[in-house]
Write a structure and sequence with these properties.
single chain, about 250 residues, alpha/beta, Carbamate kinase, eight-stranded mixed β-sheet, 8 helices, globular, binds 3-methylbut-3-enyl trihydrogen diphosphate
């Protein structure tokens, strides 16, 4: 099984609030059609949920956030999710809508429910989850990022490969020259040991990638504008991007 995250930066236009990047979405999904093994998909919030969570000052730590903010973020994620689901359906990929409230209880994963996700994928559907705002407890809510969902699902489902689809080629060791880091190896890697040039949003992604690769699964960061690279990685083991090796 392959676990794939479609980052908000590639499926939406981050500069324009509430704007999906339909061109990129359809291009990626039409490539995913070539994959002949079970896949599970998670998508981010980009100019939908991410945009609103910033506007309402909502974060990953549980707190009593603005009630309207909770609703607005959730609604916008459902809206983006519908766009993704429609694209999968249009390409005959049989999506199975899976909001994280389906398999999370407070901030803990429900093991039994997560294991069912693999069965749904093996049955020929594509479970599609997404980062979302979640009920925690005691009037508190929290933002559960798509990246965190990737970590949670990887740990339990142990996919053959984990892929993060971005709008850049991978991790650059130098932003100016765009020199790509092809491989980051070794069980003892920590984020400070990786010599790279990254922006804030990428830090969390890399932390999650390192943690997943440490638990024994290869993690591949790839450019969604060149979605044939996703297929090449899965089918031919040709990794044109950044690969975190276990
Ligand atoms: C966004 O998930 C969750 C919300 C803000 C509702 P991510 O944090 O994974 O989204 P992207 O991929 O970075 O946009």
């Amino acid at each position: 099984m392959i676990l794939i995250k479609l980052g908000g930066s590639i499926i939406t236009n981050k500069q324009k609030p509430l704007t999906p990047n339909l061109f990129a979405i359809n291009k990626i999904v039409s490539q995913l059609k070539k994959i002949k093994e079970p896949i599970v998909v998670v998508h981010g919030g980009g100019s939908f949920g991410h945009y609103w969570s910033v506007r309402y000052n909502m974060h990953t730590e549980p707190a009593k956030y603005n009630r309207k903010g909770v609703s607005v973020v959730k609604n916008s994620m459902v809206e983006l999710n519908k766009i993704i689901l429609d694209s999968f359906l249009k390409h005959s990929l049989n999506p199975y809508c899976l909001p994280p409230t389906n398999f999370m209880f407070s901030n803990k994963a429900d093991l039994k429910k997560v294991r069912e996700i693999a069965k749904i994928a093996k049955a020929g559907l594509v479970p599609i989850s997404f980062g979302d705002v979640m009920w925690h407890s005691k009037n508190k809510f929290y933002i559960l990022s798509g990246d965190r969902i990737m970590g949670i699902l990887s740990k339990i489902l142990k996919p053959r490969l984990v892929i993060f689809v971005l709008n850049v080629d991978g991790i650059y060791s130098d932003m100016k020259t765009k020199k790509l880091l092809y491989e980051i190896k070794g069980k003892k890697t920590t984020i400070s040991e990786v010599k790279m040039d990254i922006t804030g949003g990428m830090t969390r992604k890399i932390k999650e990638a390192i943690s997943i690769s440490k638990s024994g699964t290869n993690v591949f960061l790839v450019n969604g504008n060149k979605p044939n690279r996703i297929v090449n990685a899965i089918r031919n083991g040709k990794f044109e991007g950044t690969l975190f090796r276990k």
